[in-house]
Amino acid sequence: MNAGIEFRGVTKRYGGPKSPLVVKGIDLVVPKGSLTTILGPSGCGKTTTLRMIAGLDAPTAGQILIDGQDVTTLGPAERNVSMVFQSYALFPHMNVLANVGYGLGVLGMPKAEALERAHATMASVGLAGFDERLPSELSGGQQQRVAVARSLVLEPSVMLFDEPLSNLDARLRRSMREEIRALQRRLGLTVAYVTHDQSEALAVSDQIIVMDAGLIAQAGTPHQLYEHPASTFVAGFMGEATLFDAVAQPDGRVRLGPLTLNARQPVAPGPVKVAVRPESWRVHEAALAPPEGALAATVRQCTYLGGLLELTLHTELGAIFIVTPEVDRLWLPGEAVALTLTQRGMAVVPA
Fold this sequence. Notes:
The chain has helices at 46-54, 96-106, 111-124, 140-152, 170-187, 198-204, 222-227, 232-237; strands at residues 3-13, 21-31, 35-39, 61-66, 69-70, 81-84, 158-162, 190-195, 207-212, 215-220, 242-248, 253-256, 259-262, 270-276, 281-285, 295-304, 309-315, 318-324, 336-341, 346-350. Helix 2 packs across helix 3, helix 2 (96-106) runs parallel beside helix 4 (140-152) and helix 3 (111-124) crosses helix 4 (140-152). The relative contact order is 0.12. It is globular, with a radius of gyration of 24 Å. Helices cover 24% and strands 35% of the residues. The protein has two domains: 3-227, 3-Layer(aba) Sandwich (Rossmann fold), CATH 3.40.50.300; 278-343, CATH 2.40.50.140. It is of the alpha+beta class. Strands 6-7-8-3-9-10 form a six-stranded mixed β-sheet, with helices on both faces.
Protein backbone atom coordinates (compact mmCIF):
# COMPACT_ATOMS: atom_id res chain seq x y z
CA MET A 1 0.00 0.00 0.00
CA ASN A 2 1.47 3.35 -1.06
CA ALA A 3 1.02 5.93 1.69
CA GLY A 4 -0.03 9.42 0.66
CA ILE A 5 0.23 10.56 4.29
CA GLU A 6 1.88 8.72 7.17
CA PHE A 7 2.22 9.57 10.88
CA ARG A 8 4.79 7.72 12.98
CA GLY A 9 4.44 8.19 16.74
CA VAL A 10 3.25 11.80 16.38
CA THR A 11 2.51 13.80 19.51
CA LYS A 12 1.48 17.42 19.94
CA ARG A 13 1.22 19.71 22.94
CA TYR A 14 0.75 23.46 23.09
CA GLY A 15 2.89 25.20 25.70
CA GLY A 16 5.69 23.87 27.89
CA PRO A 17 6.71 20.26 28.58
CA LYS A 18 4.20 19.97 31.45
CA SER A 19 1.22 21.02 29.35
CA PRO A 20 -1.17 18.20 28.35
CA LEU A 21 -0.79 16.37 25.05
CA VAL A 22 -3.46 17.18 22.48
CA VAL A 23 -2.32 14.31 20.22
CA LYS A 24 -0.83 11.35 22.06
CA GLY A 25 1.60 9.38 19.92
CA ILE A 26 -0.54 8.32 16.97
CA ASP A 27 0.33 6.21 13.93
CA LEU A 28 -1.84 6.55 10.86
CA VAL A 29 -1.73 5.96 7.11
CA VAL A 30 -3.81 7.69 4.43
CA PRO A 31 -3.39 5.51 1.31
CA LYS A 32 -2.40 7.41 -1.82
CA GLY A 33 -5.41 8.27 -3.98
CA SER A 34 -7.92 7.68 -1.15
CA LEU A 35 -10.23 9.85 0.92
CA THR A 36 -9.71 9.36 4.66
CA THR A 37 -11.97 11.08 7.16
CA ILE A 38 -10.71 11.98 10.62
CA LEU A 39 -13.79 11.85 12.80
CA GLY A 40 -14.41 12.59 16.44
CA PRO A 41 -16.06 14.88 18.98
CA SER A 42 -14.89 18.42 19.71
CA GLY A 43 -11.49 18.49 21.41
CA CYS A 44 -10.42 15.00 20.30
CA GLY A 45 -7.39 16.29 18.33
CA LYS A 46 -8.68 15.87 14.78
CA THR A 47 -8.16 19.48 13.64
CA THR A 48 -4.70 19.57 15.26
CA THR A 49 -3.86 16.41 13.29
CA LEU A 50 -4.98 18.08 10.06
CA ARG A 51 -2.97 21.22 10.83
CA MET A 52 0.15 19.09 11.37
CA ILE A 53 -0.33 17.48 7.95
CA ALA A 54 -0.59 20.99 6.45
CA GLY A 55 2.51 22.21 8.29
CA LEU A 56 0.55 24.88 10.15
CA ASP A 57 1.48 23.20 13.45
CA ALA A 58 4.75 21.36 14.11
CA PRO A 59 4.59 18.03 15.97
CA THR A 60 6.16 17.85 19.41
CA ALA A 61 7.59 14.42 18.55
CA GLY A 62 7.36 11.84 15.77
CA GLN A 63 7.54 11.90 11.97
CA ILE A 64 5.16 13.02 9.22
CA LEU A 65 5.66 11.69 5.69
CA ILE A 66 3.91 12.76 2.48
CA ASP A 67 4.39 10.53 -0.57
CA GLY A 68 7.24 8.85 1.30
CA GLN A 69 9.14 12.10 1.97
CA ASP A 70 9.79 13.18 5.56
CA VAL A 71 8.17 16.63 5.82
CA THR A 72 8.22 16.90 9.62
CA THR A 73 10.39 20.03 9.65
CA LEU A 74 9.09 21.58 6.41
CA GLY A 75 6.76 24.58 6.33
CA PRO A 76 3.38 24.68 4.53
CA ALA A 77 4.82 26.12 1.29
CA GLU A 78 7.31 23.25 1.01
CA ARG A 79 4.84 20.39 1.31
CA ASN A 80 2.72 20.58 -1.87
CA VAL A 81 -0.41 20.43 0.27
CA SER A 82 -3.58 22.52 -0.15
CA MET A 83 -6.20 23.11 2.52
CA VAL A 84 -9.87 24.09 2.26
CA PHE A 85 -10.90 25.88 5.44
CA GLN A 86 -14.29 25.85 7.15
CA SER A 87 -14.68 29.59 6.49
CA TYR A 88 -13.49 29.25 2.84
CA ALA A 89 -11.14 32.26 3.44
CA LEU A 90 -11.84 33.83 0.03
CA PHE A 91 -10.45 37.28 -0.78
CA PRO A 92 -13.60 39.47 -0.76
CA HIS A 93 -12.16 42.16 -3.06
CA MET A 94 -11.08 39.66 -5.76
CA ASN A 95 -13.36 38.09 -8.33
CA VAL A 96 -13.65 34.31 -8.72
CA LEU A 97 -10.95 34.05 -11.39
CA ALA A 98 -8.48 36.05 -9.29
CA ASN A 99 -9.25 33.98 -6.19
CA VAL A 100 -8.73 30.70 -8.02
CA GLY A 101 -5.52 31.84 -9.74
CA TYR A 102 -4.01 33.61 -6.73
CA GLY A 103 -1.69 30.79 -5.71
CA LEU A 104 -0.35 30.39 -9.22
CA GLY A 105 0.64 34.05 -9.26
CA VAL A 106 2.44 33.65 -5.93
CA LEU A 107 4.37 30.73 -7.44
CA GLY A 108 5.43 32.96 -10.35
CA MET A 109 3.63 31.06 -13.11
CA PRO A 110 3.38 33.02 -16.40
CA LYS A 111 0.06 34.85 -16.62
CA ALA A 112 -1.23 33.11 -19.76
CA GLU A 113 -0.51 29.65 -18.33
CA ALA A 114 -2.05 30.62 -14.98
CA LEU A 115 -5.25 31.85 -16.68
CA GLU A 116 -5.55 28.66 -18.72
CA ARG A 117 -5.13 26.44 -15.67
CA ALA A 118 -7.51 28.54 -13.56
CA HIS A 119 -10.22 28.36 -16.23
CA ALA A 120 -9.79 24.58 -16.59
CA THR A 121 -10.01 24.08 -12.85
CA MET A 122 -13.09 26.31 -12.56
CA ALA A 123 -14.79 24.28 -15.29
CA SER A 124 -14.01 21.04 -13.43
CA VAL A 125 -15.96 22.23 -10.36
CA GLY A 126 -18.87 23.82 -12.21
CA LEU A 127 -17.72 27.45 -12.14
CA ALA A 128 -17.33 28.13 -15.87
CA GLY A 129 -18.56 31.64 -16.64
CA PHE A 130 -18.18 32.89 -13.06
CA ASP A 131 -14.91 34.76 -13.72
CA GLU A 132 -16.06 38.25 -12.75
CA ARG A 133 -18.31 37.39 -9.80
CA LEU A 134 -17.25 38.55 -6.35
CA PRO A 135 -17.54 36.14 -3.37
CA SER A 136 -20.38 38.30 -1.97
CA GLU A 137 -22.38 37.58 -5.14
CA LEU A 138 -22.13 33.79 -4.72
CA SER A 139 -24.20 31.27 -2.78
CA GLY A 140 -22.62 29.21 -0.03
CA GLY A 141 -22.23 26.23 -2.35
CA GLN A 142 -20.59 28.37 -5.04
CA GLN A 143 -18.17 29.84 -2.50
CA GLN A 144 -17.31 26.29 -1.46
CA ARG A 145 -16.51 25.44 -5.08
CA VAL A 146 -14.24 28.49 -5.37
CA ALA A 147 -12.35 27.38 -2.26
CA VAL A 148 -11.96 23.86 -3.69
CA ALA A 149 -10.85 25.20 -7.08
CA ARG A 150 -8.29 27.53 -5.47
CA SER A 151 -6.73 24.52 -3.74
CA LEU A 152 -7.08 22.17 -6.71
CA VAL A 153 -5.44 24.53 -9.22
CA LEU A 154 -2.09 24.07 -7.46
CA GLU A 155 -2.17 20.34 -8.29
CA PRO A 156 -1.23 19.35 -4.74
CA SER A 157 -0.07 15.91 -3.63
CA VAL A 158 -2.56 16.11 -0.77
CA MET A 159 -5.80 18.04 -0.25
CA LEU A 160 -7.08 18.76 3.24
CA PHE A 161 -10.65 19.68 4.20
CA ASP A 162 -11.47 21.13 7.64
CA GLU A 163 -15.22 20.83 8.32
CA PRO A 164 -15.89 22.01 4.74
CA LEU A 165 -19.68 21.61 4.78
CA SER A 166 -20.59 22.92 8.23
CA ASN A 167 -21.75 26.32 6.92
CA LEU A 168 -24.17 24.85 4.37
CA ASP A 169 -27.82 23.82 4.72
CA ALA A 170 -28.72 20.11 4.78
CA ARG A 171 -29.61 19.73 1.08
CA LEU A 172 -26.52 21.61 -0.09
CA ARG A 173 -24.30 19.59 2.27
CA ARG A 174 -25.48 16.40 0.62
CA SER A 175 -24.88 17.80 -2.87
CA MET A 176 -21.42 19.19 -2.05
CA ARG A 177 -20.17 16.02 -0.35
CA GLU A 178 -21.14 14.10 -3.48
CA GLU A 179 -19.23 16.63 -5.61
CA ILE A 180 -16.13 16.44 -3.41
CA ARG A 181 -16.20 12.64 -3.51
CA ALA A 182 -16.69 12.52 -7.30
CA LEU A 183 -13.84 15.00 -7.82
CA GLN A 184 -11.52 13.03 -5.54
CA ARG A 185 -12.23 9.80 -7.41
CA ARG A 186 -11.97 11.35 -10.87
CA LEU A 187 -8.59 12.97 -10.19
CA GLY A 188 -7.22 10.26 -7.88
CA LEU A 189 -6.52 12.80 -5.13
CA THR A 190 -5.17 11.94 -1.68
CA VAL A 191 -7.57 13.63 0.70
CA ALA A 192 -7.70 13.97 4.49
CA TYR A 193 -11.09 15.26 5.57
CA VAL A 194 -12.02 16.37 9.09
CA THR A 195 -15.60 16.34 10.32
CA HIS A 196 -17.65 15.64 13.45
CA ASP A 197 -20.63 14.46 11.35
CA GLN A 198 -20.87 10.65 11.26
CA SER A 199 -23.23 10.50 8.27
CA GLU A 200 -20.91 12.76 6.28
CA ALA A 201 -17.94 10.52 7.11
CA LEU A 202 -19.84 7.37 6.13
CA ALA A 203 -20.91 8.95 2.83
CA VAL A 204 -17.54 10.13 1.50
CA SER A 205 -14.80 7.93 2.97
CA ASP A 206 -12.62 5.07 1.85
CA GLN A 207 -11.27 4.99 5.41
CA ILE A 208 -12.47 6.54 8.67
CA ILE A 209 -10.15 7.26 11.58
CA VAL A 210 -12.10 7.82 14.81
CA MET A 211 -10.20 9.87 17.40
CA ASP A 212 -10.92 10.09 21.11
CA ALA A 213 -8.96 12.31 23.53
CA GLY A 214 -5.88 12.53 21.30
CA LEU A 215 -5.73 8.84 20.43
CA ILE A 216 -6.99 6.76 17.52
CA ALA A 217 -9.90 4.70 18.84
CA GLN A 218 -10.34 2.73 15.59
CA ALA A 219 -9.50 2.97 11.89
CA GLY A 220 -11.17 1.08 9.06
CA THR A 221 -13.70 1.24 6.26
CA PRO A 222 -17.11 2.81 6.93
CA HIS A 223 -18.64 -0.68 6.95
CA GLN A 224 -16.10 -1.99 9.48
CA LEU A 225 -16.61 0.88 11.90
CA TYR A 226 -20.39 0.84 11.66
CA GLU A 227 -20.93 -2.91 11.78
CA HIS A 228 -17.94 -3.97 13.90
CA PRO A 229 -16.98 -1.22 16.37
CA ALA A 230 -13.98 -2.14 18.53
CA SER A 231 -15.03 -0.30 21.69
CA THR A 232 -17.97 1.22 23.50
CA PHE A 233 -16.76 4.70 22.43
CA VAL A 234 -16.76 3.86 18.71
CA ALA A 235 -20.06 1.99 19.00
CA GLY A 236 -21.70 4.93 20.75
CA PHE A 237 -20.24 7.52 18.40
CA MET A 238 -20.92 5.85 15.05
CA GLY A 239 -24.61 6.17 14.23
CA GLU A 240 -25.76 7.45 17.63
CA ALA A 241 -26.06 3.98 19.13
CA THR A 242 -27.46 3.46 22.63
CA LEU A 243 -25.37 1.19 24.87
CA PHE A 244 -27.05 -1.44 27.05
CA ASP A 245 -25.61 -3.78 29.67
CA ALA A 246 -26.01 -7.42 28.62
CA VAL A 247 -24.61 -10.89 29.31
CA ALA A 248 -22.89 -13.13 26.74
CA GLN A 249 -23.69 -16.81 27.28
CA PRO A 250 -21.37 -19.78 26.61
CA ASP A 251 -23.40 -20.77 23.53
CA GLY A 252 -22.53 -17.41 21.90
CA ARG A 253 -25.94 -15.85 22.38
CA VAL A 254 -26.41 -12.60 24.30
CA ARG A 255 -29.14 -11.84 26.80
CA LEU A 256 -30.43 -8.26 26.81
CA GLY A 257 -33.33 -8.12 29.27
CA PRO A 258 -36.01 -10.40 27.81
CA LEU A 259 -34.32 -10.32 24.37
CA THR A 260 -31.92 -12.98 23.08
CA LEU A 261 -29.42 -11.89 20.43
CA ASN A 262 -26.89 -13.67 18.26
CA ALA A 263 -23.47 -11.99 18.44
CA ARG A 264 -22.12 -11.34 14.95
CA GLN A 265 -18.55 -12.09 16.02
CA PRO A 266 -17.04 -14.28 18.77
CA VAL A 267 -17.43 -12.84 22.27
CA ALA A 268 -16.23 -14.22 25.61
CA PRO A 269 -18.93 -15.26 28.09
CA GLY A 270 -19.73 -12.67 30.73
CA PRO A 271 -20.80 -9.01 30.92
CA VAL A 272 -20.82 -7.14 27.59
CA LYS A 273 -22.27 -3.99 26.10
CA VAL A 274 -24.76 -4.08 23.25
CA ALA A 275 -24.78 -1.05 20.95
CA VAL A 276 -28.19 -0.62 19.33
CA ARG A 277 -28.88 2.05 16.74
CA PRO A 278 -32.29 3.71 16.35
CA GLU A 279 -33.07 1.90 13.09
CA SER A 280 -32.41 -1.56 14.60
CA TRP A 281 -35.71 -1.81 16.48
CA ARG A 282 -39.03 -3.11 15.14
CA VAL A 283 -42.29 -1.98 16.73
CA HIS A 284 -45.24 -4.38 17.14
CA GLU A 285 -48.76 -3.80 18.42
CA ALA A 286 -48.95 -5.30 21.90
CA ALA A 287 -52.57 -6.32 21.31
CA LEU A 288 -51.70 -8.49 18.29
CA ALA A 289 -49.71 -11.29 19.95
CA PRO A 290 -46.17 -9.89 19.48
CA PRO A 291 -43.23 -12.29 18.94
CA GLU A 292 -42.18 -14.41 21.90
CA GLY A 293 -39.47 -12.77 24.02
CA ALA A 294 -40.26 -9.24 22.80
CA LEU A 295 -39.49 -6.22 24.99
CA ALA A 296 -42.57 -4.50 26.42
CA ALA A 297 -42.60 -0.73 25.94
CA THR A 298 -44.81 2.32 26.37
CA VAL A 299 -44.86 5.15 23.84
CA ARG A 300 -43.70 8.49 25.24
CA GLN A 301 -43.63 10.47 22.00
CA CYS A 302 -44.23 9.87 18.29
CA THR A 303 -42.99 12.38 15.69
CA TYR A 304 -43.98 12.15 12.02
CA LEU A 305 -41.20 13.28 9.62
CA GLY A 306 -42.73 12.38 6.27
CA GLY A 307 -40.68 9.33 5.31
CA LEU A 308 -39.84 8.37 8.89
CA LEU A 309 -41.28 8.13 12.37
CA GLU A 310 -39.24 9.00 15.45
CA LEU A 311 -40.39 7.26 18.60
CA THR A 312 -39.31 7.66 22.21
CA LEU A 313 -40.39 4.75 24.41
CA HIS A 314 -40.10 3.70 28.03
CA THR A 315 -38.91 0.12 28.74
CA GLU A 316 -37.38 -1.89 31.57
CA LEU A 317 -34.01 -1.20 29.88
CA GLY A 318 -34.61 2.55 30.09
CA ALA A 319 -35.62 5.12 27.48
CA ILE A 320 -35.23 3.94 23.88
CA PHE A 321 -35.17 6.13 20.76
CA ILE A 322 -36.35 4.51 17.52
CA VAL A 323 -36.41 5.58 13.87
CA THR A 324 -38.70 3.56 11.59
CA PRO A 325 -39.84 3.93 7.95
CA GLU A 326 -43.24 2.41 8.85
CA VAL A 327 -45.19 5.66 8.82
CA ASP A 328 -48.68 4.29 8.18
CA ARG A 329 -49.25 3.66 11.88
CA LEU A 330 -49.03 6.67 14.19
CA TRP A 331 -48.56 5.68 17.83
CA LEU A 332 -50.21 7.57 20.67
CA PRO A 333 -48.49 8.59 23.93
CA GLY A 334 -49.21 5.96 26.59
CA GLU A 335 -49.88 3.21 24.04
CA ALA A 336 -48.41 -0.23 24.87
CA VAL A 337 -46.16 -1.76 22.20
CA ALA A 338 -43.63 -4.58 21.91
CA LEU A 339 -40.09 -4.31 20.53
CA THR A 340 -37.85 -6.77 18.75
CA LEU A 341 -34.40 -6.34 17.19
CA THR A 342 -33.13 -6.91 13.67
CA GLN A 343 -29.51 -7.99 13.10
CA ARG A 344 -28.71 -4.74 11.30
CA GLY A 345 -27.17 -1.75 13.08
CA MET A 346 -26.34 -3.66 16.23
CA ALA A 347 -23.00 -4.69 17.73
CA VAL A 348 -21.74 -6.49 20.84
CA VAL A 349 -18.60 -4.96 22.37
CA PRO A 350 -16.56 -5.65 25.52
CA ALA A 351 -17.98 -4.10 28.68
